[in-house]
Design brief:
727 residues; mainly beta; Maltoporin, Chain A; 22-stranded antiparallel β-barrel; 57% strand; globular
């Protein structure tokens, strides 16, 4: 059995599912590698049920629950699309899951690396090395959710890059998700599901070293906590230092991450969980390469137009408390409380243009400071009942969110130019002047209800609606604008309807309509109350179990987005409202096990994403960073017997087509194909050694276009060695 599967099965049998229909005594014996025996027993009640011995040899849908561990590469259940524990085949919207086994086999360090296993998802820029952004079905998103709670609504991006040390699975809900999450982007929602504590002791630690001086330590330990029945804790942590291949001088990038988590079952009907995440980031302020004459030169991918003193320091803190109680076997009450706070500081030199000869890059010196805080409360109920001959699962809730961006103060002034071809360091700091002081606050109340109805004859209907209302305060004080605007009243209705049809057991067909609503939080020049952004999607799709362990899913969709904020072409520090955009395409994803030991995950996408109405940019222009064609495939094989037993090999290819770098379509970046490979050896269930190689052909390419002065090149040939020890 591959390293990590034992801990996954223990975890899955050590946590009580959200809704338990029968409180029966369980005596489940799992035979792991013919040597490990695990017993999981709940409180006995009348009508005891005893299950026979179960041998687990592959993917195990019998032990999977939404939000819990996945054995192998294929998930079968999720709560991201419905907020209830629902089989993926009963969900009328595309949901793709990247399980932890994929993260471990690929040794993914960045969230963007993990998400390239999903069709129609591309990295969308790091915001000068500060954060993660993504292109989902053609539309950029700069935020994501953690265990179903969106990051701070008053910020335009997360202040840190995401660490994966405590990630159990990464789920991507394609298309609008406002019916359940309120504010959101129409392309989709990324939901990061955290690892839960286990009553059975478990632990792992990774030591890593790689190309360009990369170093990382990562670990997680979990166990029952003595003295309190049903109480378990987990501590995940990571620290890394990454000088990278970019030419920053003698400075590198560092990140530390700590995530304590607790679960407590004070009674058979009550579950309490807590998650905390604390991240610190110290990185170079890196805008990447500059476009010239309609393209981005790749003759020197380490070229840096900043100064060694250009730094970015930030912190992000996240706390989540969830309490669930079963009133009876059909009704569950849930309360989720969340608090987030943090901020950042930076001092940097930024490219602003090219001189007339296009041999010099003009620059500005800029400094910024920002803090934020937010609270979120979700009070929800899940009820299952029969009505008019149909089985219903009703989910209803009330959400209150209050996000406050205390300030975002920026100072700026002109700075000496530098050679485009051979930039040199050494210019001295100059005096700064106030550029802007942005204060922002959003306060929203959401009321939502959803009904999943089993109509019989293989038909299931999903209907839902959400209403949001509240206020937004938005004021950017500049040297020429000091008038304080009034609060803006906000409201929006987000319906969703979907139909699922299962004509035969392995095949599911579905169709859905869903919408999005998002208060405008972009920094729009000379506009005090920009209109909220809205979107709608039509989607049809299918899921087919090619074998019991291998699933192929496909979808066709069309998304329309209105009142879109984009970078101002005349001033990159501000945004403009661009009008309407449309994205339509088809995609397919494959995940699971082909044969014993042979696993695969990947996807393919054909996409047409363009401007359809606008007064600033030309109608018909392609959207930023959205390739017409992209795809990826990753596969591993574990030798089952003989002298090669214990060895695993893996390989994958990622292809991304040509992309435009701005809404003016003034330049493009070329397509690329990147070849990756891995080999790892499991000494036993407690130790693994792995070598992961990326970009085997040493291809030069732009991975993340953002705008004319922000184009992040992909890393050259890189090797990462990892030693893993596990309890």
């Amino acid at each position: 059995m591959p390293l990590g599967h034992q801990d996954r099965i223990i975890s899955a049998t050590s946590n009580r599912s959200p809704c338990t229909n029968t409180r029966s005594g369980l005596a489940i014996t799992l035979l792991l590698a013919s040597t490990t025996v695990v017993h999981a027993q709940s409180n006995p009640v009348q009508d005891e049920v005893i299950l026979s011995e179960l041998s687990v040899t592959g993917t195990g849908p019998a032990v999977e629950r939404a939000g819990g561990p996945v054995i192998g590469y294929r998930a079968t259940r999720s709560a991201t699309a419905t907020r209830t524990d629902t089989p993926l085949r009963d969900t009328p919207q595309s949901v793709q899951v990247v399980p932890r086994d994929v993260l471990v086999d690929q040794q993914d360090i960045r969230l963007s690396d993990a998400l390239q296993n999903v069709s129609s998802v591309q990295p969308g820029g790091t915001i000068q090395g500060r954060s993660d952004t993504f292109i989902i079905r053609g539309f950029q998103t700069q935020t994501y959710a953690i265990d179903g709670v969106l990051l701070n609504q008053a910020g335009t991006f997360s202040t840190v890059t995401r660490d994966l040390a405590d990630v159990e699975r990464i789920e991507v809900l394609k298309g609008p998700a406002s019916v359940l999450y309120g504010r959101g982007d129409p392309g989709g929602l990324i939901n990061i599901v955290s690892r839960q504590p286990t009553l059975v002791p478990s632990g792992d630690i990774n030591l890593q070293a790689g190309s360009f001086g990369f170093r990382r330590v990562q670990g997680s330990v979990s166990s029952a906590i003595e003295g309190v029945d049903g109480l378990a804790g987990r501590l995940s942590f990571a620290g890394q230092s990454d000088p990278t291949f970019r030419n920053f001088g003698d400075r590198d990038n560092s990140r530390t991450f700590v995530a304590p988590a607790f679960t407590w079952n004070p009674s058979p009907d009550t579950r309490v969980s807590f998650l905390g995440e604390f991240t610190r980031l110290d990185t170079q302020y890196d805008e990447g390469l500059v476009a010239r004459n309609g393209r981005v030169p790749l003759d020197n991918i380490s070229r840096y137009y900043g100064e060694p003193f250009s730094r970015y320091n930030s912190n992000a803190n996240f706390g989540l408390l969830k309490i669930e109680h079963d009133l009876n076997e059909n009704i569950t009450l849930r309360e989720v409380l969340n608090a987030q706070w943090g901020g950042f500081d930076f001092l940097a030199t930024r490219a602003t243009g090219l001189d007339k000869t296009q041999t010099l890059v003009t620059r500005r010196e800029t400094a910024g400071h920002s803090t934020y805080a937010s609270v979120d409360s979700q009070t929800e109920m899940v009820a299952k009942f029969d009505l008019l001959g149909f089985r219903h699962t009703v989910f209803a809730g009330i959400e209150y969110t209050n996000g406050y961006r205390h300030s975002y103060t920026t100072q700026s002034t002109n700075y000496p130019s530098v050679s485009f071809q051979n930039p040199a360091f050494g210019s001295a700091l100059v005096g700064l002047q106030l550029q802007g002081d942005l204060k922002q606050k959003n306060e929203l109340n959401g009321l939502y209800v959803q009904d999943q109805i089993d109509l019989g004859l293989g038909l299931q209907l999903l209907v839902g609606v959400r209403y949001d209302s509240g206020t937004q305060y938005y004021f950017n004080r500049t040297p020429t604008s000091r008038t304080i605007p009034p609060d803006q009243q906000l409201s929006g209705t987000s319906p969703r309807v979907g139909l699922v049809y299962r004509p035969v057991e392995p095949l599911t067909l579905y169709a859905s309509y869903t919408t999005s609503f998002k208060p405008q939080i972009a920094n729009v020049l000379n506009v005090t109350n920009p209109p909220p952004e809205t979107g709608e999607q039509y989607e049809i799709g299918s899921r087919l179990d090619l074998t019991p362990d291998l699933t192929l899913s496909a979808a066709a969709f069309r998304i329309t987005r209105n009142n879109v904020a984009a970078t101002d072409p005349n001033n990159s520090l501000y945004s403009v409202i661009t009008g309407q955009q449309r994205s339509e395409g088809v995609e397919a994803d494959l995940a699971g096990q082909i044969l014993p030991g042979w696993k695969v995950i990947g996807g393919i996408s054909f996409l047409d994403a363009r401007i359809t109405k606008d007064t600033t940019f030309a109608v018909g222009n392609r959207l930023v960073g959205a390739p017409a064609f992209s795809g990826s495939i990753w596969s591993t094989y574990q030798f089952q017997d003989g002298f090669l037993r214990g060895w695993n090999v893996g390989a994958g290819i990622t292809y991304v087509g040509r992309r435009t770098g701005d809404l003016n379509n003034s330049y493009t970046v070329g397509g690329y194909a990147r070849l990756d490979a891995a080999v790892f050896y499991d000494f036993n269930e407690h130790a693994r050694f792995s070598i992961n190689m990326r970009n085997l052909t040493d291809r030069r390419y732009i991975e993340q276009p953002f705008n004319q002065f922000n184009n992040l090149p992909g890393a050259p040939l890189s090797v990462l060695a990892t030693i893993t020890a596990r309890l």
